[in-house]
Design a protein that fits this description.
alpha/beta; two-stranded antiparallel sheet; about 40% helix; globular; about 260 residues; 12 helices; eight-stranded parallel beta barrel
């Protein structure tokens, strides 16, 4: 049974008015280092915060670079332990205590699981431990179904991954979009948000956001397709118009992005 605190925190992320969300992901540095577009977070991210429904990031960036006076729900990345220099990115562990997440006033905590990797069990056990702590303190858990180099992003694999995440107790699941995405949503009992993935053209990113919610996602957790855009503020406004406002991608591109 979900108590008031957890329901309230989830309602800050996924808006109860329409059941949708535009999350801004800037947690890439925890394994990628100074990602393009995030070198100077003070300048690149601050102008976007007024348009995002929540902000997904690490505690180091939250403490050092985000204005505590900005009212934005925090989804705190709490897994790590690898870098892009390693062949196997799945070798992660929990890196942040739930107590520290509470000190940071997080609305949710997030970690990755790598279904099908050699560290699959460790990731699922990490998720289970985090869910246990989450219910102890009323903090929702977002599970990211990360994809290793050998994993395909098809409906069969993604359905398997998100269902395992939900069955383990995740309150929200972040995954990738694929052909037949409605089948992924149908078999997942908790809200799904779609990852933005690598930088693409603005039209393509808006099309992704549109298709994600059209086929049942609660929204998107987009990063590089926003902060690496030539017009980041316009781009997040356009994504929001698609997800929350129901605008067609081309209309959002022409009327808001350009």
């Amino acid at each position: 049974m979900m108590d008031y605190g957890m329901k309230n925190r989830l309602a800050r992320i996924v808006k109860p008015e329409d059941g949708r969300t535009v999350m801004l992901a800037i947690d890439h540095g925890y394994f990628m280092g100074p990602t393009s577009g995030l070198e100077n977070i003070d300048k690149s991210i601050a102008p976007l915060l007024g348009y995002a429904d929540s902000l997904m990031l690490t505690r180091g960036i939250l403490r050092s670079k985000i204005d505590a006076g900005v009212d934005i729900p925090i989804v705190l990345r709490v897994s790590g332990g690898t870098s892009i220099l390693k062949d196997d990115l799945s070798d992660e562990d929990i890196t942040v205590s739930m107590e520290d997440a509470i000190r940071l006033n997080a609305s949710a905590v997030a970690l990755s699981i790598f279904i099908g990797s050699k560290n699959e069990k460790q990731g699922i056990i990490n998720l289970a431990k985090l869910v246990n702590k989450g219910y102890e303190y009323g903090i929702p858990v977002l599970a990211v179904t990360a994809v290793g180099r050998e994993m395909s992003r098809d409906v069969r694999y993604l359905s398997l991954s998100v269902r395992i995440a939900a069955e383990t107790g995740a309150n929200i699941v972040k995954t990738y979009y694929c052909d037949g995405f409605e089948r992924v949503v149908e078999t997942c009992p908790v809200p799904i948000v779609v990852a933005g993935g690598k930088k693409t053209g603005e039209r393509d990113a808006l099309e992704l956001a549109y298709n994600a919610v059209k086929y049942g996602a609660a929204g998107v957790d987009m990063g590089r397709n926003i902060f690496q855009s030539e017009k980041p503020v316009n781009m997040i406004k356009a994504v929001k118009a698609v997800v929350h406002g129901g605008l067609m991608p081309e209309e959002a591109y022409r009327k808001i992005y350009l």
